[in-house]
Specification:
This protein has 22 helices and ten strands. With about 500 residues, the protein is of the alpha+beta class. The longest helix is centred in the N-terminal third of the chain and has 21 residues.
């Protein structure tokens, strides 16, 4: 009896310990034709997220003029328990539940998990679809209203619905509204927390009205064309939509409470199954994944570089011999520490995976950071091999292009073709836009250069390249090749531009 009691006590102890210590999170990645989604969630749930994204992409392709290039790389998406995990080296406002990033280092979207996170994910992909499709500038209210309008989409085997009410936005609209002049001109980052909720709600309602009232569609098109051409958002709104924006209060309140407020329901047959590959990631992903994501998509955009580097070094040390941890450490050394140490870490990884395009790109970048002149030939060889392995790797092309003097040197037809391809794959990235404009201007195609520069020059989200792009555009429109060349020689701001972060609350 005593032995039985002791055995029961031991079993009870094991059970209590198992309840007290939750199992380690298991990170996985799911890939489809257009998406690569990382999350610490079960395989079936992760597969469902990717299937939903493919369905959503098809909807946007069907009902918008935007078309993402089929050759474009898969969009990387990271799903997290709390959004602050997505910015391990910085902070994010507590009202944000996701964001989309398009910067010189990479393009990615982040969202929280759960049902609300799923809506946020659709919101963020709508941003990608808009900006990757056109390379055009949009007013912030429209960029957010577009994403809010389509994120309400629901999918069933026999139907799709979109343009639905969003309960959260409807609730916000019961509060005092922002002045329309302020909303039409503002970027979300300029608003206080409570104002942001109203900004999203009013932008959603205004976009819903513009999309679904037939006589407003032509006016919206004219408004967007004016902004793409350099007009201020408020001036374009008054000229092409409504001379007195304050009248929107009564117009939209009547619209939202009347029979003209509709949504779309489409009957369909069950869609074809989506090919999704789910792969388990190593144990080190639990500690390293968001470090990796930060470097892979935001590069050196870190405030406290020494602290960030120390954190990655300490985490990598716990997983000595793990390839994913080593890869993340190499990125940390490249962007924040010693590029020579990055080369040392990358060398054995490349020996095991010599055809890995990311490793080749990182090694080339590290060699160039050590001594560009001495290592240019080897770096170019690696980058050419990387693009052969991944023909849509615009980041490898970007590094390769900058082993040449494209601003003031001669750009031959082969190099020009690389720049054109790079721009077609990532037209929403400011640095890529500037590169494309530079080579066009160098060939005397100043009018085309001015057009290419517009998305950056009039970026409503405030890229640090914006003022530089406006100066270049002015010189290009004036046909002043000498002034354009002088600006290129002086160069853009020395501080690296931040990624284009488009948050969703």
């Amino acid at each position: 009896m005593a032995e039985l009691f002791a055995m029961r006590a031991i079993l009870l102890l094991f059970w209590l310990l198992s309840m007290a210590a939750p199992a380690a999170a298991e990170w996985r990645v799911a890939e489809s034709a257009h998406f690569r989604v990382y999350a610490n969630m079960n395989a079936e749930a992760l597969r469902g997220r990717v299937e939903l994204l493919e369905d959503y992409r098809n909807l946007l392709e069907m009902f918008t003029t935007a078309k993402v290039d089929e050759l474009a790389p898969k969009l990387d998406i990271y799903l997290v328990d709390r959004i602050e995990k997505a910015v391990p080296f910085g902070t994010v406002p507590p009202t944000v539940a996701g964001f989309y990033n398009a910067g010189d280092s990479g393009i990615a979207a982040y969202a929280v998990k759960g049902d609300f996170g799923q809506k946020v994910l659709l919101h963020e992909y709508a941003h990608h679809h808009m900006f990757a499709s056109t390379g055009q500038s949009y007013p912030t209210w429209y960029a957010e209203g577009f994403a809010e309008y389509f994120m309400t989409a629901t999918f069933a085997p026999n139907r799709v619905e979109f343009g639905l009410l969003d309960p959260g936005r409807v609730y916000s609209l019961q509060q005092p509204w922002l002045a329309w002049d302020k909303l039409i001109e503002s970027a979300t980052g300029e608003l206080r927390s409570q104002e942001r909720y109203m900004f999203y709600a009013q932008s959603w309602l205004l976009t819903h009205y513009m999309f679904r009232v037939p006589e407003m569609r032509e006016k919206l098109t004219a408004h967007l064309k004016a902004i793409a051409g350099g007009s201020g958002s408020l001036a374009a709104f008054k000229a092409h939509i409504l001379p007195e924006p304050r009248q929107l209060n009564s117009i939209l309140k009547n619209y939202s409470s009347g029979r003209s407020f509709t949504y779309s329901r489409l009957a369909r047959t069950a869609p074809a199954p989506v090919a999704v590959k789910v792969q388990d990631l190593p144990e080190s992903a639990d500690a390293m994944m968001m470090y990796y994501a930060a470097f892979d998509n935001r590069g050196s955009a870190v405030t406290d570089r020494s602290k960030a580097l120390a954190a990655v070094q300490a985490a990598a040390k716990r997983y000595d011999g793990d390839a994913f941890a080593a890869r993340t450490l190499a990125m940390a050394e490249l962007y924040l520490g010693d590029p020579a140490r990055a080369v040392t870490v990358l060398r054995p990884l490349l020996a095991k995976s010599p055809a890995d395009p990311e490793l080749m790109r990182l090694q080339a970048s590290a060699l160039l950071a050590i001594d560009a002149a001495a290592n240019r030939r080897e770096a170019r060889r690696l980058l050419v091999q990387a693009v052969k392995a991944a023909p849509n790797d615009w980041r490898a092309m970007h590094v390769y292009v900058h082993t040449h003097n494209i601003e003031t040197g001669t750009v031959d037809d082969n190099l020009f073709a690389v720049v054109q391809l790079m721009w077609s794959l990532a037209p929403q990235v400011p640095g890529i836009v500037l590169d494309m404009a530079s080579v066009l201007a160098g060939r005397g195609r100043l009018a085309e250069a001015a057009k290419v520069l517009e998305p950056v020059a009039f970026d409503p989200h405030g890229s640090r390249y914006a003022s530089f792009a406006r100066l270049l555009r002015d010189a290009a429109l004036a046909g002043d090749a000498k002034a354009y060349q002088q600006l290129l020689t002086e160069g853009p701001p020395k501080t690296p531009p931040p990624e284009t972060v488009i948050p969703a609350p």
